[in-house]
Write a structure and sequence with these properties.
The chain has 168 residues and is mainly alpha-helical. It has one domain: Up-down Bundle (Four Helix Bundle (Hemerythrin (Met), subunit A)), CATH 1.20.120. It is built from 4 helices and 2 strands, in the order ααααββ. The chain has helices spanning 15-33, 39-66, 74-96, 100-130, and strands at 143-144, 150-151. It has a two-stranded antiparallel ribbon. Helix 1 (15-33) runs antiparallel to helix 4, helix 2 runs antiparallel to helix 3 and helix 3 runs antiparallel to helix 4 (100-130). The longest helix is centred in the C-terminal third of the chain and has 31 residues, at 100-130. It is elongated, with a radius of gyration of 17 Å.
Length: 168
Amino acid sequence: MSTLAWSADLALDHPRMDGTHEEFVALLADTEAALTLDEATLLTRWTTLCEHTVEHFGQEDRWMQATGFAPENCHTFQHKAVLDVMLECAKRAREQADFEPLRLAVGELAIWFPQHARQMDAALAQHMALVGFDPETGRCAVTLDGNGEPLREPALEPITGCGGSSCG
């Protein structure tokens, strides 16, 4: 099992995102610790992690929408794919007492999350800083065109990638 712990290496210098990520890592660690406990405790902790993740991903998806990302961007797509798997694991555990997918998913999330945070979430944090996005008000100080240049009018082409330079 790959244990994931919060560290400065995961921090993105975006207080709200970092706080949400730190909570995700803590809930994942709680779930991992429950792998050796009874299945009811494991399912309870996984459900708590799923509930957090619905809001966590929803928050980032709302930020992307507010800062010029297309609804079908790859970051949002990855959120949906991961959350769908998490919720399916919970359903199988709850309805069929099949905990194997859930147990496997705990370890996979510990591997997946750091890469996701360092790439997609870091790109989102950088993009939000670039456009002067205030998560409290949901407003941008700057509107950019497809080349990252400031515009006076809203951008015509939404961002379909993750917002990073390595993604279209």
